[in-house]
Design goal:
It is built from six helices and eight strands. It has 196 residues and is of the alpha+beta class. It has a domain of 135 residues: HIT family, subunit A (2-Layer Sandwich), CATH 3.30.428.10. The strands form two sheets. The chain has a five-stranded antiparallel beta sheet with strand order 4-5-6-8-7, sandwiched between helices. The protein has a three-stranded antiparallel beta sheet with strand order 1-2-3, with no helix packed on it. The longest helix has 22 residues.
């Protein structure tokens, strides 16, 4: 019969299982529950097969979203002259936004001074809206440029803005590569639009 012990790990209790084998060796493991998130497998599958192109040939999903008839359906928060802000359908945290230039390019150094300036203005505007609606205690901001860096959409440069709170990282991402998102993306979209 395995013995189980509870250990405190990163502020959370984890159940470890230890079982003695016949030869005196011990088998060690972690008892873990599973969380169902079928949307995640669709996203992960794009890394092996390449993202499906919808709409016009060589059009990124961001360009297709811009052509969409409904900003609500496409999760677009705001449109500027050179860029737009869109909710991340696969968020790292609630309120995860992406700032995307209209012009489709995969290279940062292809962006004009005007495009870069508006991207930074949109980041600032996004942070102001998130501060009013969600009151984060910090932010992660950056870009994954190229497939090798982890970019899920590598044909259209975009910048991630992720609100953070003390204690928002727990054992779930560390032990099971699972992130718990506390608010529906469309609810967040509606709240942000009111203050954007």
């Amino acid at each position: 019969m395995p013995e189980s012990s509870l250990f405190l790990f990163s502020g959370n209790w984890i159940k470890f299982m230890i079982q003695a084998e016949g030869d005196g060796a011990f088998q060690f493991g972690v008892s873990m529950k599973r969380m169902w998130s079928p949307w995640r497998s669709e996203y992960i599958a794009t890394f092996s097969r390449g993202a499906k192109k919808k709409g016009k040939k060589n059009e990124s999903l961001f360009t297709a979203a811009l052509r969409g008839k409904s900003d609500d359906k496409q999760l677009i928060v705001w449109r500027g002259k050179h860029c737009f802000v869109i909710m991340n359908l696969y968020p790292y945290n609630s309120g995860h936004l992406m700032i995307v230039p209209y012009r489709q390019t995969s290279r940062l150094h292809d962006l004009t001074s005007e495009e870069l300036a508006e991207v930074m203005h949109a980041v600032q505007r996004s942070m102001n809206a998130l501060d009013k609606v969600m009151h984060p205690q910090g932010y992660n901001f950056g870009a994954n440029i190229g497939r090798a860096s982890g970019a899920g959409v590598d044909d259209h440069i975009h910048f991630h803005l992720v609100p953070r709170w003390n204690g928002d990282t727990n054992f779930m991402p560390v032990l099971s590569d699972t992130k718990v998102i506390s608010e529906d993306v469309k609810s967040t979209l509606k709240k942000l639009r009111k203050v954007f």
